[in-house]
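2024-03-11 09:14:02 DEBUG pipeline.ingest accepted 1 chain
2024-03-11 09:14:02 DEBUG pipeline.ingest length=301
2024-03-11 09:14:03 DEBUG pipeline.predict start
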Amino acid sequence: MDLRQLEYFLAIAKRRSFTAAASELGLTQPSLTKTIRALEQELSVQLFERLPRGVELTSFGNSLLHHAEAMRVQVQDARNEIEELRGGTFGLVTIGAGPAWLRRHLPKAVSQTLARNPGIKVRIESGYDEGLISLLRRGEVDFVVAELPTSERSRDLDVAPLTSDGLGVCCRAKHPLARARSLALKRLLDYLWIMPPRSSRVHRRVNALFVAADLPAPEPLVEAESMAFQLQMLRESDALTYTVHTTLLSAEAAGLTMLNVPQLRASREAGIISRRGAWLSPATNAIISELKKICAGSPRG
């Protein structure tokens, strides 16, 4: 098994098509097919199930996919580290950031790092925890700042807690429920909900809290990755969402408030998530160091 075979395997797994993968790789389809057959013969298993349209990974293929992606990332890490040792310019840092970090701490950390190191370039990938961690595992971001994953889901990751925050139900200040001193969960089901993607931990958490109270989970009529869209929609309607308390500190949250719903009170820890054993460039470490300093002085949110 060699790196070329794994590169070809990953292209087919991504495209679910030998034809599309061959085009992407600049190969003829017979040449690509021959390479994959040789890999299957070496492993004595079938990696792809041929379908009328495209292919699907077999159980063996899915197992190899996990290892092949990790190997590709490790090879890229090695190349990056060697480039740094050779004295090349390696100033690009790609950061995966959750919605709260886009508004607090991260902009300040990046701006202060750039002021001291003008050669650094930064690219931000926004999203929610699960999607960002997928990008991290694929080597598409250098590190993530978001809610920390559970220990069961972070065995291949390093986590560094930086902040903690409370979670609650958010709505406009003039919402019909806003003046209530305490609310039962059932009343919240009478209103429209707007939520982040179903795959996000915040979405799964609020569903679990309703189910624990023997109530159906709210069915959001709108799902959006954009926190700015969520907040604007709250201002324009009687919709509800579930988010961290520090959301209200942003300018976009003007005119919004948190409802007092005891059964939905929760807390979360957030911080830096990186691939275990990954090489991090000096530029990346400079931003991480700045983040840690800032969060040490403001550990809430």
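2024-03-11 09:14:41 DEBUG pipeline.report The chain has a mean pLDDT of 90.
2024-03-11 09:14:41 DEBUG pipeline.predict end
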